[in-house]
Design goal:
The structure is a homodimer. Chain A has six helices and five strands, in the order αββαβαβαβαα. With about 150 residues, the first copy, chain A, is an alpha/beta fold. In chain A, helix 4 links the parallel strand 4 and strand 5.
């Protein structure tokens, strides 16, 4: 676990929050370097698919698609089924999860496919989401398909 | 199964092919009407996440996010883990799959979550993909994370 990469994921979450968006961010790393970073774009782009992780994949782009299986992913929040499915599609080998207390995604699906993951219980990730869910429950429910 | 909806998914696949793209298309329907349609955008938009199904979700947009759980999805090809994860996230209730002979996606994952699906073995879907995979195997492998 490289704290600088988690910090950049948190930074992405804060950028989103500052834009009036959902505070979830992610980065993808390859050989110790960030190759893609992003954040939830539901508000900013009116997107129903650009969760933080998806935005990071999209920003990494086709250039890196052939090496995604040698990449690691840092996300501020436990990945939902969509993001987990994308992790499986591209064979990401390790996932660092900022927290899974405010939302527990499809971690069992990751595990059943042999994807290593580590839940970091990061206090900043938790407080960002707690505050957001409290303030905008409808938006949050929309984002997780409730 | 409404053949007009499958035909529109096939039409989307052909539009993509005509643009030099990957011939996979999808539509999402709500109360007997198409609310989102799309096709693979890997070539057209340089996207690593816009599979046909994802593009259809994105084109349906936030307006319909709250009712995705009452929607059906038609896709020309068996959905991969990413697209299956998105189907699970939004609780799509039924999926019509044009074919699963050239690629079998995460159908077991759909089944394990109680999502109904029907594989149609449509000849046009099969021949579109067979020809494409034969002509552009590298592009196809990139699209499915191989």
């Amino acid at each position: 676990m490289n704290p600088a990469f988690l910090n950049e994921a948190i930074n992405q979450a804060k950028i989103s929050l500052g834009q009036g968006g959902i505070p979830i961010g992610a980065v993808i790393t390859y050989k110790g370097k960030i190759i893609g970073k992003g954040h939830n774009q539901r508000i900013q782009k009116g997107s129903v698919i650009l969760h933080g992780e998806m935005d990071a994949f999209e920003n990494a782009g086709r250039e890196y698609a052939p090496v995604f299986k040698d990449c690691e992913l840092y996300t501020t929040l436990s990945p939902c089924h969509m993001c987990t499915g994308t992790i499986l599609l591209y064979g990401i080998k390790k996932v660092y999860i900022g927290e899974n207390q405010t939302f527990k995604g499809a971690e069992e699906l990751l595990a059943s496919h042999g994807v290593e993951f580590e839940v970091l219980n990061n206090e900043e990730c938790i407080s960002l989401m707690k505050k957001f869910i409290e303030e905008k429950p409808n938006l949050w429910n929309e984002d997780i398909g409730n």
